[in-house]
From TrEMBL:
Keyword Transcription regulation included in the entry's annotation: yes
Residues annotated as domain HTH tetR-type: 1-55
Biological source species: Nocardioides fonticola
Protein name: HTH tetR-type domain-containing protein
This protein's UniProt keywords: DNA-binding, Transcription, Transcription regulation
InterPro entries the record matches: Homeodomain-like_sf, HTH-type_TetR-like_transc_reg, HTH_TetR
Domain of life: Bacteria
Keyword Glycosyltransferase: no
Known DNA-binding region: 18-37
């Protein structure tokens, strides 16, 4: 059911994620969806959790991979590529959960929690790997977050991973 909801979200935004449409796409009944999630709001919260957990896991994996790279420029470029790919894969979820239902207290709280977790990973890594000042690392995170938000709102960026890496390194090293 969550796979069906994610596909509908990707195809038509949050408005397309209705109980009937999810049940139809999943090949199940409305009743089984209500039984599992309670209502549409429960389904949306489960989709939110699944989407943001995936983003956290993908971010952690990208940093593990970058830690294995000895060249700092290569590591920064790898992370820029990963960030752009993560933003692209989760564009519909970012748009839905950062914009469309951000006023739901449960969604807002989870958004803040996930953002803080990703911020901590990014800032800590930049400080540890490059000796960045905390302020420089925070600025670099803000740039990445703004890039992700802009992709969610207006579509894929034309920025290259090299340009993103250069900007992150410049902010980190100032």
């Amino acid at each position: 059911m969550l796979d069906a909801a994610a596909a509908l979200l990707e195809d038509g935004g949050l408005a397309a994620v209705t109980v009937a449409a999810v049940a139809d796409r999943a090949g199940t009944s409305n009743g089984s969806l209500y039984h599992r999630f309670g209502d549409r709001a429960g389904l949306v919260r489960a989709l939110h959790e699944r989407s943001f957990t995936a983003m956290l896991e993908e971010t952690a994996a990208a940093f593990r991979d970058a830690d294995a790279l000895t060249d700092d420029e290569e590591a920064a470029r790898h992370l820029a590529e990963a960030a752009l790919a993560i933003f692209g894969r989760h564009r519909a979820a970012l748009r839905a959960f950062l914009v469309e239902v951000a006023d739901d207290p449960a969604v807002e709280a989870r958004n803040a929690e996930v953002t803080a977790s990703i911020r901590a990973v990014v800032v800590d890594w930049l400080v540890r790997r490059f000796g960045a000042s905390p302020a420089g690392a925070e600025d670099a995170f803000a740039l990445l977050y703004a890039l992700g938000a802009s992709q969610a709102l207006v579509g894929p960026t034309t920025m290259t991973p090299g340009a993103v890496a250069t900007a992150v390194l410049a902010l980190s090293r100032r």
